[in-house]
Amino acid sequence: MSTKISKLTVSRFRSFGELKVDGFGQVNLITGRNNAGKSTLLEAIRLLATEGSPSTFFNILNYREETDQRNEETGTAITPEDFSAFCSLFSGFPSLAECRQAFEISGENGIPLKLSARVAWFTEETDPEQGRRLIPARDDLFGDSTGFPALQVDLMNRRRIIRLDRPLRYRRALGDATEGISTPCVFLDPFSSRSTSQLAAFWDSITLTDAEAEVVHALQIISQDIQAVSMVGSDAGQRPRTAIAKSINCSHPVPLRSFGDGVNRLFGLILSLTCAKSGVLLVDEIENGLHHSVLVDIWRTIFRLARQMDVQVFATSHSWDCIEAFQKAASEDTENGVLVRLARKGDMVIPTVLSEKELQIITRDRIEVR
Q1: pLDDT by residue (tens digit) across 335-357?
Q2: More exposed terminus of the chain, fewer Cβ within 10 Å: N or C?
Q3: φ and ψ of 225, to 5 deg
């Protein structure tokens, strides 16, 4: 990804009636009070970066527990209430019929990027030459139509149709980097350190590369005795994939979990960054599990690796210690760090973009930006 997302405009998506952010950098920290829209902003960037892939939609819904719990074997008729999960993607939590007005996410990274999504009605036909194809049907949802509702996702040069009449059976994953998307996009939630097995596929992709050494070096910020990391176990076997570490204090490898939440959070963070090479890394509540005393060194590592691996980072936080540490690291990496503060005023979300120099004044005078 030779150029980064510099501007973003979001309309009618979740809590954003209209949001415009101009001036993103390579490493971006997003702050704001609870319910200001920090996680929603990450979701909008994630959908845009992954070109509205179906698994991104389903992962986002599953993460928020907005899943469709219908049993596809019951044979019961579908109703508008069965699709409330998808309605939550639209501003104001509208009914399914009102979701025909699309939400839009657009941005710039040297070239225009745009995604829009709305609920539409389709029927399926079989053509002897072209096989099965979807045909737009009339718009009176749940009237006499024999078709089905779908999420119609329009991109700059193509269209995706995601059927909504089938229960969500997609397992939550860390990102969409394996779907053939042109821009790798990795999402790290606040609780990923609870199970290192989630990160096994990422570890496999960097084994015996320089990135493996970078991960180990980062872990030494918290535990200097860690010398090496590996993965054991099997996805198909009785023993799940588990991260283990070699320590100068132990005669044999020990589970990485035994080093505590901070080490495991950092393991997931740096591993995800290395696997987002030439793409985008999204981190929700980046400081989760990390002691304030190590945050400056962690941010320095993130700035260095983001520049080295051509990764644009978007992270959220409501911790003053995290903001202060971010500013210190940003001051050593000129023009790469940007802080975005989201503030809610009534039904509107107002973004404020702060450059490294402005952030330096804010942290010096301890001006509230959380």
Answers
A1: 789 999 999 887 788 888 887 67
A2: C
A3: -80, -10
